[in-house]
Design brief:
Length: 202
């Protein structure tokens, strides 16, 4: 993560959850660098990165975090996971606003890293990925969280396990099966129904 103290961030998050608005004013400078890193990570995956600047994405994420209903924050990892999810939503909304179509000639693309690809050259449409994740969340919400934390927030296996309260082996298993399911969906293969809807167990 970033160089700020996770303990200090967690304490400020807890105070913010308790209604201390001054805690939020102290929190933002501490987490801003990490939010910028997340934003750059998102934007590097877009071919049309010029459509959204890093600073704009961070500012929009901050505004939405501040405007959200009071959240019972667990720790700094929870905060950055939520921030990553908000950034994902901002970019999806922007792509839709610009009128890009899932199968159109002009669409926003993201490049899956090697962990999520069969080929190094494979690119995945942002909107298609978002739609696939929404479908995954319907029957396997924990797998969706693992993808968000690993792929979008950039957490390690160990950090992801700590953030969602499961073992590292569980995260590895969920990460592996979620990748396979997403690749199946994003390749446009015919869905095989409940056979791929694996039950979540620790």
């Amino acid at each position: 993560m970033s160089e700020q103290s996770p303990g200090e961030v967690t304490q400020l998050l807890l105070k913010w959850s308790g209604g201390d608005e001054q805690a939020l004013e102290r929190l933002i400078p501490l987490v801003y660098a990490e939010l910028q890193r997340l934003a750059r990570q998102f934007l590097r995956r877009e071919y049309d990165a010029s459509a959204v600047q890093t600073g704009t994405l961070v500012q929009e994420a901050c505004l939405r975090l501040m405007g959200a209903d009071r959240i019972a924050w667990n720790d700094s990892k929870h905060f950055f996971a939520i921030a990553a999810r908000i950034m994902r939503r901002v970019l999806v909304e922007e792509a839709r606003r610009r009128g890009y179509k899932k199968r159109g000639a002009d669409f926003t693309r993201v490049s899956f890293d090697e962990a999520l690809t069969v080929s190094e050259e494979r690119d995945v449409e942002l909107l298609a990925l978002d739609e696939a994740l929404e479908r995954l969340e319907e029957f396997a919400p924990r797998k969706c969280r693992v993808v968000e934390l690993r792929y979008f927030a950039g957490l390690t296996i160990e950090e992801t396990a700590e953030a969602i309260g499961v073992s590292g082996n569980t995260v590895k298993r969920e990460w592996r099966t979620a990748k396979l399911w997403l690749l199946h969906e994003l390749n446009g293969a015919e869905r095989s129904g409940d056979g791929q809807r694996t039950q979540e167990t620790d």
